Amino acid sequence: QVQxxxxxxxxxxxGGSLRLSCAASGRTFSRYDVGWFRQAPGxxxxxxxxxxxxxxxxxxxxxxxGRFTISxxxxxxxxxxxxxxxxxxxxxxxxxxxxxxxxxxxxxIKYWGQGTQVTVSS
Length: 122
Description:
Order of helices and strands: EEEEEEEEEEE
Radius of gyration: 13 Å
Distance between the termini: 40 Å
Number of strands: 11
Largest sheet: 7 strands, mixed
């Protein structure tokens, strides 16, 4: 059974930082892209960032470029999202996701995590 388990969410002031983790189990993701989506209240779930597990190539939505950094630890089968200079508009539930191709759309996702809340106070 494949599981993606997120951790690291919480409450932070604007300008602060958080690091999210996504621990993957049940299969190897060497042929997958793994990344993060987020969903704010009343809005659709949107793509944030992705990483190709094999090559390490990364891609970001424009609004987080220069502030968020995704990385992976192959030995721990874990993906991390370092979020700096957080803004109130980053407030959302963040979902870890995995796809056998680029995961810029929700329809491309094969596996989802349960989500972790990130709240940025202004």
